Amino acid sequence: PGARALAAGAPAGRAYVAVAGIEVDRALKRLVDEVIMPGTGVEPEPFWRGFAAIALELAPRNRALLDERDSLQAQIDAYHVARRGQPHDAAEYRAFLTQIGYLIAPPSTAGPATVRTTGVDPEIAETAGPQLVCPVDNARFIVNAANARWGSLLDALYGTDVVPGPRGGPYSPERGAAVWDEAHRYLDRIFPLDAGVKWGSVHGLTVSDGPDGDLRASLSIGCTAPIGLLDPSQIVGYRGEPASPSSILLRNHGLHVELVIDRASSVGKAHKAGLADVQVEAALTAICDAEDSACSVDADDKMRTYANWHGLMTGALQVPMEKGGQQLVRSMNEDRTWTSLEADKQGSKLTLPGRALLLCRNVGLHMYTDIARTADGDELPEHFVDAAVTILAACHDLRGPNRARNSRTGSVYIVKPKMHAPAEVALVDTLFGHLEALLALPPNCVKVGVMDEERRASANLPEMMRAAHHRLCFVNTGFLDRTGDEIHTSMEAGPVLAKGALKAQAAWYAAYEEANVASALQAGLLGRGQIGKGMWAAPDNMAQMMRDKLAHLKAGASCAWVPSPTAATLHALHYHTLSVHAVQTSMLVSSANHCTHAVLDRLLELPILAEQPSAECVRSELENNAQSILGYVSRWVGQGVGCSKVNDISGTALMEDRATLRISSQHIANWLHHGLTSQEQVLETMRRMAQLVDEQNGSDPLYQRMAPGFDGPEWKAAVELVLAGRAAPNGYTEFTLTKWRKVRKALSAQ
E-strand spans in 282-324? Predict the structure, then answer.
């Protein structure tokens, strides 16, 4: 518990306001009272009095749940130490985990866990599509993420390796022609034309009058008889005049594609049919992340986070920027409108959102903060403050002049990470219920997304869903954090597999991915929420993403994470290629087979090496892990960047956040603990890799070099993550990162 309470006492220069038995950072309270609260119908005095009562009531419960985590880990460690050298007995191990309360049996009088959530927006409940994850503390990034609901397919193809060939320099007509060839191939596959006609041969596009005088969908290719879509129901709207539309709206599997027609534009002049762009409905949803990809260690950081979320909920968030030597302001997109061609709505307006549906990921239960504390100076759980302020800000979307800019069903979407057990979900459910009452919101309008990224959560997922059955809207696998917890939980069982083999060879991984989808389907999440899969981490390798990421849909995911608006535009094509609804409906029939004791035993199988690795293998693993740790920590601690492209040891840029850091630090800690390496070898490797990371960041004027002194907070944080990794609660990295980021900020302020 002591490791969780960082920087006790007021930081230098910060002032607090006493409110009903707690103390709140003065600057934060002013932001909430004077910026976020006006227009919500909520007044400061009852809000803070109510929040104080909630925090003081639930704080002991939060602490007890964290103590339970530590107690269970200590018992599991002792179990493995006592059985060293003995063959693993799956049945005995499962019985032990049940005995100590790690595995939770359903209530004897309860039936299967059943999700009963209502009032969920269609982007989550009904339509499958890409999901962006973006740090909410970066205003420019988060506005781009919100606007990624629509993306240019031509830009995405031209600017990435999906179309082979050089991409730099001035516009290449040859590459432009290759881009159109690729775009036509996708249109041929997703929106096939009648009589086998290919989109590349289309010379003109019109919306023609039907024989009964009503508008009908028809596409002319300059022939005597117009050629229409093979499935006429796929055309749902248009702009302009039917004989010369400026836009035609198509729909497939619930997702839309807009054909933009403009023969006067430079692109339209060169296209036979005058197409100027193909706009793809891309990121249906976006997680505004205040957790893994953000860097918030004090009141100033949290105020930026909350202010950005408030701007998203009011629609007023704007970002001044320079582009092409010109000053401009980037703001949130407006909705898009067409004339409807749907059978029962012909001639009426068809409006689609111009922005992704936004969810906010709060921090986990284990994080405590000095921005709100008890009268005795004890820090309060940070997720209490996150929930209160983010839900308060969302009241702008639920009522008032900006109503329904985000949710059209009157819901607030909060993603909760790193929960381990049903009792932790129940605490969050209680917290949300109390806040709904405080803010006079309808019961269960605050929805919760559960991240299945801890080993105990995976083993108890049905009961986790039961604990939030009336507000659950989202279940997502997080392979990276899940692997970090897999290593930490089995720390005393022996040396774990090499990092790559933890996914490719270990039995637990396949069982984890299968059981997650099966449990969600069994609980009735289909039609009520999302089943998500993890991030594509290589933003510069879109060709491989297009080859590989369809597997997430085949596995039953209704959304999968992408690192950029461009990736969302391209990944959206997968959802046109495959009907996720059909996949999930088919999987539902056999889902019970993936929720058995045999699957649980596979999930709990220990990922332990069968034989001693070679010296070369140890060297390679150490170098890869150390470089990954140093590359990420140097930016997090040194610059406050929580998520960005970080070069790996070979120079490939990967999107890194704290989850990858957790794996790498825990992996070295495990091999060090079991004697596969020594502290001397680890530190020597880290010094060499620090020099490499310094070289990789040599062009960054803000970068803090680690070599040759090896005495800065960036270096000290990296070393602490490894050498103290075995003792870190659940292997979490946040405590070390937060401590050393505060040190760097203090040094920079001198």
Answer: 285-289, 318-323
What's the CA gap between 481 and 231, in Å, rounded? 44
Neighbours of 495 (CB within 10 A): 21
Q: Give the span between the Cα atoms of 594 and 651, in whole angstroms.
A: 40
Closest to 356 in 3D by CA, of 283, 280, 411, 306: 283
Rounded Cα distance between 388 and 24, Å, is 13
What residues have CB less than 8 Å from 94, skipping those under 6 apart?
Answer: 103, 597, 600, 601, 604
d(CA 664, CA 499): 8
Tens of pLDDT, residue by residue over 153-207, are 999 999 999 999 999 889 999 999 999 999 999 999 999 998 888 999 888 898 8
Instruction: Determine contact, residues 637/693, Cβ cutoff 8 Å.
Output: no
Q: What is the identity of the amino acid at 711?
A: D
Per the CB < 8 A criterion, the answer to whether 561 and 532 are in contact is: yes
Positive/negative CA dihedral, 245, 246, 249, 250: positive
Within a 10 A sphere around the Cβ of 522, how many other Cβ atoms?
Answer: 22
Closest CA to 34 of 435, 439, 440, 392: 392
* Residue-by-residue DSSP string for 154-201: HHHHHTSTTS-S---SS--HHHHHHHHHHHHHHHHHHSPBGGG--GGG
Question: Which of 56, 63, 61, 85 has the alpha carbon at shortest distance from 5?
Answer: 63
Q: What are phi and psi of 354, to 5 degrees?
A: -95, 0
Per residue in 341-368, pLDDT (tens digit) is: 987 777 799 999 999 999 999 999 999 9
Closest Cα partner for 179 from 156, 148, 204? 156
33-47, 401-415, 619-633, 688-702: segment of lowest average pLDDT: 401-415
Which residues are known catalytic residues?
361, 657
Host H or E run for residue 510: helix 507-522
What is d(CA 682, CA 337) in angstroms, rounded to the nearest whole number?
59
Residue among 721, 709, 711 at smallest CA distance from 632: 721
Instruction: Name residue 381's beta-bridge partners.
Output: 368
- Locate 64 and state its tokens: 């007890």
The per-residue pLDDT for range 671-709, each reduced to its tens digit, is 999 999 999 999 999 999 999 999 999 999 999 999 999
Residue 4: pLDDT over 90: no
pTM: 0.95
The tally of CA atoms less than 13 A away on the side-chain side of residue 390 is: 32
Are 657 and 734 contacting, i.e. CB atoms less than 8 angstroms apart?
A: no
Q: What is the mean pLDDT of residues 728-749?
A: 96
